[in-house]
């Protein structure tokens, strides 16, 4: 029998998203956000939910753009740091030893060292409660060549992205392939 845990923000896993913005002075900033994910196929979109108190919130509202970087397992310390301090107080890029790169398509930066980046223009904003959801249309996807597979697409086992455990507040890596989507379940089709 299942036990009720109450209404909580528990979902396993959640992505670790590095949201890049320029603030009102043009200073690049990145924050660690776990509340987000792909939300539309056409146009391709990603949603991130942020509290109004964050430095990134005001930057997205002002600049109408953001980037989303995906870090690899070996960047867990830098990723966590981006969620520990505020860009109002420190230059996160400098402290973490990251290089700010201006997006070619949107008014937002990303870290050159992050192997996978989405460049997004703000499409919609939805006030939910404590958080505001920002829906960004993905204008381009950039990936380092060493995380691409033979088919030219990102290989999750080469990328080694972090995932977040919302219950225990921990970072984890990705496991092995269990089966091909839209294929393995066909065994149950009558």
Protein architecture, described:
14% of the residues lie in helices and 36% in strands. The strands form 3 sheets. It has a 7-stranded antiparallel sheet with strand order 3-2-6-9-10-5-4. With 190 residues, the protein is mostly beta strands. A hairpin with a 6-residue loop joins strand 7 and strand 8 (109-111). The protein has a single domain, classed as Pnp Oxidase, Chain A (Roll), CATH 2.30.110.10. GO terms for molecular function: FMN binding; oxidoreductase activity, acting on the CH-NH group of donors, NAD or NADP as acceptor.
User: Taking all residues together, what is the mean pLDDT?
Assistant: 96
Strand arrangement within the widest β-sheet reads: 3-2-6-9-10-5-4
Helix and strand content put the structural class at: mainly beta
Looking at CATH, the homologous superfamily is Electron Transport, Fmn-binding Protein, Chain A
Spatial gap, N to C terminus: 30 Å
What name does the CATH topology carry? Answer: Pnp Oxidase, Chain A
The profile of the biggest β sheet is: 7 strands, antiparallel
Overall tally of domains:
1
- Taking all Cα atoms into account, the compactness measure Rg is 17 Å
E-strand count? 12
Q: Please give the count of helices.
A: 4
Low-pLDDT stretches are none
**CATH architecture label:** Roll
- The rough form would be described as globular
Report helical residue fraction.
10-25%
Pfam families: Flavin_Reduct
Cofactor: FMN
Organism: Geotalea daltonii (strain DSM 22248 / JCM 15807 / FRC-32) (Geobacter daltonii)
InterPro entries: Flavin_Rdtase-like_dom, Flavoredoxin, Split_barrel_FMN-bd
């Amino acid at each position: 029998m299942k036990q009720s845990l109450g209404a909580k923000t528990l979902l396993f896993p959640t992505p670790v998203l590095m949201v890049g913005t320029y603030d009102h002075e043009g200073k690049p900033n990145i924050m660690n956000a776990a509340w987000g994910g792909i939300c539309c196929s056409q146009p391709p979109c990603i949603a991130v939910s942020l509290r109004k108190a964050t430095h990134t919130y005001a930057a997205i509202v002002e600049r109408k753009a953001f980037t989303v970087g995906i870090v690899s397992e070996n960047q867990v310390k830098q990723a966590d740091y981006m969620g520990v301090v505020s860009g109002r107080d420190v230059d996160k890029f400098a402290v973490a030893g990251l290089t700010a790169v201006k997006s070619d398509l949107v008014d937002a930066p990303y870290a050159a060292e992050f192997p996978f980046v989405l460049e997004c223009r703000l499409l919609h904003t939805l006030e939910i409660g404590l958080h505001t959801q920002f829906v960004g249309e993905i204008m381009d996807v950039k990936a380092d060549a060493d995380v691409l597979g033979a088919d030219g697409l990102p290989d999750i086992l080469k990328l080694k992205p972090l995932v977040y455990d919302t219950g225990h507040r921990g970072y984890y890596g990705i496991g092995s392939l269990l089966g091909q989507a839209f294929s393995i379940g066909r065994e149950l089709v009558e």
